[in-house]
Backbone:
């Protein structure tokens, strides 16, 4: 039997990884993006962002590369995508926050569906993976039926994606669960059968499959991200209390984490969450709840959001206090610019936000990040950048550790101590070993921990 033909529309973090993973699973894949530069880079086997393991997957499958399976191709043309005549089309475009509003901007999803539909001339399955407000799938299914020449023979399924940046390849090839939203009845059963074929390998490895309706599938993603955001803000709220009451939030997290119902993960206090998902997803979720007339159900997310945003301001205050009350003329070294380690993504990055605030208040800020420098420079061209941690720390009156890259955990405090003016480090991620730094003569301070 010929392998399934699959298209992936939108080749950002999600789509590029999904396309490469589908080729890895043995399917014939065509990836489409409307940004020609992205497609050019991907078609040459390179990755337009930093994502561990993705370049290797592309090298193994992109057509035209020496030794590749040739199963993965890219295009910017919906005509070409139509001629490819695929069995399954995955929609992986982004759904950012609308400018000036909390709601989710669905224009990329709508435009992907509107561009795809006229090319659907025979039965096919369209699968939404983007994070969307509940109710979108029903609306998009009607749109497909109306616009596709094959009309009723085009089925829609919703299959949210839970990949984490930095682990995208692993999370896509070996997900911890697969969620599929389908219609009731024979059409939905056909869609489920086809998706079971697509995911036969992970399902064979024992990955749990949850089959449900459209609204539940859409909600699973926003609910999961809201829970994670709440967990982080919970521990950050505890950090505020610890600071006021003299407790140690790291010990507290360790102790409550032993309770399996609570668990250890996502309880690292610090400058909070950022990135392209959690912040905008909780806001879009609140906006959607409002439209549905149940805004009260999610007012707690407003608090989750404000605890999180407060962390950034609090870090700035700690730094200001550390340099004697004013940033004017003070040199501040910032280690980390990305919103998390193992990524080059600086979207809504707490680290860059803190660096920017200090700079705007007159501090001389020098930033170093292992992978995020180019993106950081684009967002904040007025900050200074150095090409190593030591270079960033040269002459600094305070060092801020703001993204928990392993490179920073492995730093030699003695060597860094030679570069700085004052051995003063503020750990915004509670990820460094205080004993190690104190032993090398540093004043080590962290959020939610007692001062030694
Ligand atoms: C998240 C979800 O984890 C993923 O399932 C979803 O598909 C997309 O959104 P991602 O944005 O890659 O993934 O980041 P994640 O690993 O969840 O981290 C989010 C932010 O929370 C980062 O800024 C991270 O530094 C911060 N964080 C995480 C903490 O501050 N403390 C923690 O304990 C954990």
Residues:
């Amino acid at each position: 039997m010929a392998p399934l033909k699959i298209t992936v529309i939108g080749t950002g973090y999600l789509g590029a990884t999904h396309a490469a993973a589908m080729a890895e699973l043995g399917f014939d894949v065509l990836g489409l993006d409307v940004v020609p530069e992205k497609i050019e880079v991907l078609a040459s086997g390179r990755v337009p962002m930093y994502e561990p393991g993705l370049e290797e997957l592309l090298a193994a499958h992109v057509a035209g590369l020496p030794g590749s399976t040739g199963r993965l191709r890219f295009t910017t043309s919906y005509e070409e995508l139509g001629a490819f005549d695929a069995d399954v089309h995955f929609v992986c475009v982004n759904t950012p926050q609308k400018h000036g509003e909390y709601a989710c901007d669905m224009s990329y999803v709508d435009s992907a569906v509107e561009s795809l539909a006229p090319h659907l001339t025979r039965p096919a399955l369209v699968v939404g993976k983007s994070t969307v407000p509940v109710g979108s799938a029903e609306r998009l299914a009607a749109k497909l039926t109306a616009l596709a020449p094959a009309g009723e023979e085009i089925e829609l399924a919703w299959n949210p994606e839970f990949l984490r940046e930095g682990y995208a390849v692993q999370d896509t090839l070996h997900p911890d669960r697969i969620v599929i939203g389908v219609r009731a009845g024979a059409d939905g059963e056909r869609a489920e059968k086809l998706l079971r074929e697509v995911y036969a390998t992970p399902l064979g490895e024992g990955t749990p499959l949850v089959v449900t309706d459209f609204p539940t599938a859409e909600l699973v993603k926003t609910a999961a991200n809201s829970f994670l955001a709440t967990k982080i803000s919970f521990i950050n709220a505890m950090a505020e209390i610890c600071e006021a009451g003299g407790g140690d939030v790291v010990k507290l997290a360790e102790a409550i984490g032993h309770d399996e119902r609570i668990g250890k993960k996502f309880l690292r206090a610090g400058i909070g969450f950022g990135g392209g998902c959690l912040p905008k997803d909780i806001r879009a979720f609140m906006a959607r709840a409002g439209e549905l007339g149940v805004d009260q159900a999610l007012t707690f997310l407003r608090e989750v959001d404000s605890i999180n945003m407060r962390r950034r301001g609090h870090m700035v205050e700690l730094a200001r206090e550390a340099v004697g009350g004013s940033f004017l003329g003070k040199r501040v070294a910032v280690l980390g610019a990305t919103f998390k380690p193992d990524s080059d993504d600086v979207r809504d990055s707490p680290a860059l936000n803190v660096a920017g605030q200090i700079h705007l208040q007159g501090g001389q800020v020098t930033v170093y990040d292992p992978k995020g420098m180019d993106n950081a420079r684009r967002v904040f061209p007025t900050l200074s950048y150095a090409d190593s941690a030591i270079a960033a720390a040269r002459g600094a009156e305070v060092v801020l550790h703001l993204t928990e890259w392993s490179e920073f955990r492995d730093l030699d405090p003695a060597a860094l101590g030679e570069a700085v003016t004052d051995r003063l480090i503020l750990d915004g991620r509670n990820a460094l070993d205080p004993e190690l730094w104190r032993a090398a003569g540093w004043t080590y301070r962290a959020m939610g921990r007692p001062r030694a």
